[in-house]
Structures are given as C-alpha cells and as structure tokens.
Amino acid sequence: VWANVKAGPPDAILGITEKFKADTDPKKINLGVGAYRDGNGKPYVLPSVSKAEEILFKEKLDKEYLPITGLASFDKLATELAYGEDSAPIKENRLAVTQSLSGTGALRIGMEFIAEHYPNKSIYLPTPTWGNHNAIAKRAGLTAEKYRYFDPATVGLNFEALKEDIKAAPEGSVILLHACAHNPTGVDPTQEQWKELSQIFKEKKHFPFFDMAYQGFASGDPVRDAFAVRYFVEQGHQILLCQSFAKNLGLYGERVGTLSLVTASPEEKARVDSQIKLLVRPAYSNPPVHGARLVSTILSKPELKEQWLGEVKEMADRIIALREKLYNKLVELKTPGEWGHVKSQIGMFSFTGLKPEQVDQLAEKYHIYLTRDGRISMAGLNDNNIEYFAESVSKVVKG
Ligand code: LMR
C-alpha cells in the first residue's frame, strides 16, 4: 500500500538526538536539542516538580477528561505568570486561554486560528528562527514570510534591518516575535528596542504573535523575561501568546503550555473561546492532565513557587557560568575568530557561527552533535566535557 511513500528527511533538531543515540563512542556529546542537563549531563527533574508529584500522588485524583480548553486553575495561573496578575485583559475577563500541547501545540492551534479568522493568511518569521515554525505555519495553512533579525557580521541583532522589514510588511501583517531568549541565536532586542517595535506595530496595525518558550531562561527571572509580552499588552496590542513549560519547569515530555489571545471584551472572549474549542476538539479532543496539575500545584503554593523560582535561576546561572568557561577555553586555545558572542548571547543556546561543514566534522571526527546552523544547547556542556568540546571546536576551526 505504501510502496510510493518517499522517505522524508530527519528532523533538523530531534534527528540529531537519534544520531547521537546511535553513536557508541564514550566521548559523545549531544548539544542538539534544547533540553536542560545537570552538571553530570543528566536530564534534570526539578525538585519543586518532584514535590508537586508527591502532593498529587497523595491526593489520589481521578483520570477523567479535562475540558477541551484544559484545567481552569492551570490556565489562570499560567497566564498570570506570563501577563502578570494585574494584567488588564485578565482582570477584565477578556483573555481567551486554552491549555496546549506545550509550545508547539499552542503555535499550531494559534496559527490555525489566524488562518481561519484573520484576514491576512501569512505570518512573518525572523531569519533565522526555530526550525519548526516554518513547518507549523505551512501545516496550519499560512504562508511563511521572512523578516531580517540576525547579523552574522556582528553576531548580534540587526535592528535596523528588522525595523525596515517590519515597516515594509503590508499593514496588518501577523509577525511572530520570540518573547525572550531567541531560538536559535540567543540574541534579543533590548527593552528600549521592544518599545520602538511596539510603536511600529501600532503605526502599521501589525498583529503581534508571541512565542515564549523560555520564560526565566534568559535572565533567570520570569518577570523580567516577560517584559516584551507585558509591555505590548500595556500598550493596548491585542497579542496572541504561545507559552511553554517544557524548559522552565523541565516538563518536556508532559507537553504542557497555553495559547492565549487578548480580546476586546468578555463577550468577544467567549466567541474566541468557542472557536478555539472547534480547533482543539478534532485535533486531540482535550489536553493531558498531569503536567497541568503539576504546574498548577507549584504556582498555587507560595513556598513551592518560591522554590521553583530559585531553581529556574540556578539553571540559568549554570548556563551563564558555562558561557564564561567556554569562552575562556576557546580563547586560551587561540581559536581563530572572535568568541565574545558565546558570553553575550542569552538563554539556552549559543549560535556559534560554526559552518555546516564544521558541524559535520564535529560529528564525524569528534562525536559531538549540534544542529547544522551551528547552534549549541549550552546545558549539554559540563565540567567533564567542556574541555574536550572546546579543543574539538578549536581543531575544526583551525582546519
Ligand atoms: C529546540 O529548539 O531544541 C527545542 O525547542 C526542542 C524542539 O522541540 O525542537
């Protein structure tokens, strides 16, 4: 039956994990997927999450279906974390929210909502962006357009080009913005630049479509990392937000996040809610319950929330310390090039500037795996492998 089915390409990010697993060399390092690792290179279950697990276990809750839009307490607490408890759309009951299958699920339902209900059927994505954005847009029925974002020459933000492209986009365009810790570059606009962007969005009546997968990972402080989202909302933009708890709570496989849309009134919110349900029900009926209960337990108990905030900061700080170490090693080894960006970039990734052929050599000769765009997941490094990694990079760059 499937004789004519062609083999598809491996996923640009998750395919790396498959290659890494197949490698039997003990020196192998996986810096592909953005998943936090502890100082021993092991996956990390946050202690606050383990505590919440114990609390839930004792409660002996049932396994009934959730409503189509998810666990109400989770939806409330999660969006308060993103928008702030005092956020006007929350207080005025005009934020439409649905629990989502993490960030990807939020993006997919969010883009389907745009495709069905927004006059404009295209979405502007930064260059570069997370590889999956393009595929999600296409599947949702949107045309993916591009705006310039990163400047390889300065390994920083090309703010002038970014503004130029956003100004040149037709009025009312949907523009995807990484709220913080831009993936893959680790380069974010400053608060002043966000303010300027908000003004341009107003003038051009653009629609801000935020993806916030790393709240807490940029600065170690979830409130600070939510600056762009909160500022745009304060300025009156009716944003759409995709929120993920994969990274900041380490709930990768639980698939828990939210999709939310700021609406103009409770009545409009009710209509938007009803249309979201029509997208979710035929896609996966209703979301999984466990991750939402974990998040809800942590965010509703002040002590547990405090503990979690400390753990997020710890993860962010470990990555910052690794950046410093990696930079020092590369310089010590007299690796050709300027490596300051390793220290200045933020979030989970460093966009090293390594070329695809160099990435291939790292895999083939040194058993080190990263995405072909030269992105490394910083957390995959630790005291046991950072030296080997820096030496290998240095050798490959020296050619
Ligand atoms: C990544 O960029 O590595 C993460 O967002 C994980 C994923 O699903 O790609």
UniProtKB/TrEMBL annotation:
As its record notes, the protein acts as a catalyst of: L-aspartate + 2-oxoglutarate = oxaloacetate + L-glutamate
GO cellular component labels: mitochondrion
- Keywords on record: Aminotransferase, Pyridoxal phosphate, Transferase
Under what name is this protein listed? Aspartate aminotransferase
Under the heading InterPro entries, the entry gives: Aminotransferase_I/II_large, Asp_trans, NHTrfase_class1_PyrdxlP-BS, PyrdxlP-dep_Trfase, PyrdxlP-dep_Trfase_major, PyrdxlP-dep_Trfase_small
Q: Does the keyword Transferase apply?
A: yes
Q: Which residues form the Aminotransferase class I/classII large domain?
A: 27-392
Keyword check for Glycoprotein, yes or no.
no
Q: Which organism is it from?
A: Vanrija pseudolonga
Q: Name one GO molecular function term.
A: L-aspartate:2-oxoglutarate aminotransferase activity
| More about this protein | In eukaryotes there are cytoplasmic, mitochondrial and chloroplastic isozymes.
* Cofactor requirements of the protein: pyridoxal 5'-phosphate
Q: What is its EC number?
A: 2.6.1.1
- Highest taxon of the lineage: Eukaryota
